[in-house]
Amino acid sequence: MARGAETHGMEAVNSLAITGYGCVTSLGKGADALYAGWKEGRRGIARIRKFDTTGMECRIGGEMPGRESGPGYLEHCGLPEDLHPDLIVATTKGFLGSGAEVEARSVTLDASLPARWLQAKIKAKSATTVSTACASGTAALALAWSRREKADVIVIAGIDLLSDFVFRGFAALRAMDPNPCRPFDETRAGMTAAEAAAVMVLESEDSAKRRGAKVLGRLLGGGLGCDATHPTAPDREGRGMATAIAGAMATSHSTFNDLGHVHAHGTGTVFNDAMELKALGDAGRKTPLTTVKGNVGHAFGASGLVEAIASLEAVRHGFLPPVAGLTRPLDNWPALVEGRPLENPRFLKISAGFGGFNAAVVMEGVRE
Amino acid sequence: VNPSDLDRLDKRTREAVLAAAAALEKAGNPKRVFLWVATEVGSREADIAFWKSAKDEGGLLASPATFAATLPSALAGDVARILGLSGPAMVTVGPIEMTEIPVGDAEALLLLHDRPSGVEAVATDLSRGPTAAA
């Protein structure tokens, strides 16, 4: 997972160093596959093969390659060895892979199963499962930042599988576009359901130096906020998200002037995308906005971690890819229709979920 | 708490809302509350109920409301919405100790332990230590 073996020279006292990451998405295995697909404008979204969608209005999704189990996909993320970390797992439905498992009252119904499996696998000292719906991945990052003074090494994993169970749920909510999603487009018509697994290793600067681990980025701050308005729809004014963003900005001592880009949640639903722009507000309008969801779909609890990895890769390569499917940006926002060079390593990652849960983090990548 | 809000809730959620409201009241109704729900109950019952509605007819009869309830965070979302808790909010699955919870700059922490035996709420005024349990 980790690239290289040298310690990066910068000092940072309010942050956690990122020393490894990996993921599996509908664009393939590895962060390289994620970034290459994003940059080339490829979509991992296709007709669903895992389960029957006959008769359904939406029949597409973002499936991971192969037919592996949840643990199998996590192993492809490059699990760290011998670090004895504290573990945080972000998920909404754990390893749940089908409605049949629900009918069978299977053990896979337990959302804490990935954390228990991973804790044993990587010999983690502690394990916490974060489950704030589709904000889980970014909320796990915010939680890791909050625990920065108590832990040497924190491993965050994100996992959610695409199943007939969740697909039929989102179909019932009429939240899915029958065509690949178009985040932040004036004509957006819903999300594309997907699945992903992701792992990130974070540690204190001292720990990274001791191990001689190359620093791939830094987590600089995080914030959380709750809409407290509706079980499934976001607050139309984006107040919970604005609270989360304010928390991330304050803890990282950042303003929008310090950011090179925003990696939005960008599901492609009418209300989510409009909510995010409201929350970013006039101050956020000057910052380029993008998301990889148009390429990989929405992997629920894993999405925040996948998108943070995509942005770290964008900084590493010095080029910020655009939003796949976007041609006419909503509200004339500077959401990227075309990619552009990226010099500024600092970015804001935001995520939102059912129940009104919002999370935001400020991170920095390292240009290679 | 608005009684009409309570009427629409299932027994467990109603119990959680009332316990949370009581704990906050004993803590002096602090303004900036960090809501943390640690659920050990999960969503098994909602999962089964939703799939019962969704498994046939290609999902045409699937219940959107029951689907939302299949998320482990559903209880926390309901508590936040009904009590108007718009500050930071976190949901974890499994038991958790108070000492594991980072609270940031909130005035108070409202911790809900959602267990099979019932919901326990503890509101902590962060300047004075634990003040109330319900």
Describe the structure.
Chain A has 368 residues and is an alpha/beta fold. Chain A contains 11 helices and 15 strands. In chain A, a hairpin with a 2-residue loop joins β1 (16-25) and β2. The two termini of chain A are 16 Å apart. With 134 residues, chain B is of the alpha/beta class. Chain B is 36% helix and 25% strand. Chain B has 5 helices and 5 strands. Chain B has helices at residues 3-7, 11-26, 44-54, 64-69, 74-83; strands spanning 33-39, 89-93, 108-115, 118-125, 129-133. In chain B, strands 2-1-3-4-5 form a 5-stranded mixed beta sheet, covered by helices on one side. In chain B, β4 (118-125) and β5 form a beta hairpin. In chain B, α2 (11-26) packs across α5 (74-83). The longest helix of chain B has 16 residues, at 11-26. The chains are: A alpha/beta (368), B alpha/beta (134). At the A-B interface, α3, β6, α5, α6 and β9 of A face α3, α4, α5 and β2 of B.
Helix content of chain B: 25-40%
Shape of chain B: elongated
Strand content of chain B: 15-25%
H and E string of chain A: EEHEEHEHHEHEHEHEHEHEHHEEEE
Beta percentage of chain A is 15-25%
Radius of gyration of chain A, Cα only, in angstroms? 19 Å
Low-confidence blocks of residues of chain B? 130-134
> Uncertain regions of chain A: pLDDT < 50 for 5+ in a row?
1-12
Q: How many beta-strand elements of chain A? A: 15
SSE topology string of chain B: HHEHHHEEEE
Count the E strands of chain B: 5
How would a textbook summarize the main sheet of chain B?
Answer: 5 strands, mixed
* Biggest protein-protein contact in the assembly: A-B, 57 and 46 residues
Sheet with most strands: strand arrangement of chain B? 2-1-3-4-5
Write the layout of secondary structure elements.
The complex is a heterodimer of chains A (368) and B (134).
Chain A: E1 16-25, E2 28-29, H1 31-40, E3 45-47, E4 60-62, H2 70-75, E5 86-90, H3 99-103, H4 113-122, E6 126-130, H5 136-146, E7 153-160, H6 164-172, E8 196-203, H7 205-211, E9 217-226, H8 239-251, E10 261-263, H9 270-284, E11 289-290, H10 293-296, H11 303-317, E12 319-320, E13 340-341, E14 346-353, E15 357-365
Parallel strand pairs in A: 5-6, 5-7, 10-11, 10-14
Antiparallel strand pairs in A: 1-2, 1-8, 1-9, 3-4, 7-8, 9-15, 12-13, 14-15
Helix pairs in contact in A: 1-11, 5-11, 8-9
Chain B: H1 3-7, H2 11-26, E1 33-39, H3 44-54, H4 64-69, H5 74-83, E2 89-93, E3 108-115, E4 118-125, E5 129-133
Parallel strand pairs in B: 1-2, 1-3
Antiparallel strand pairs in B: 3-4, 4-5
Helix pairs in contact in B: 2-5
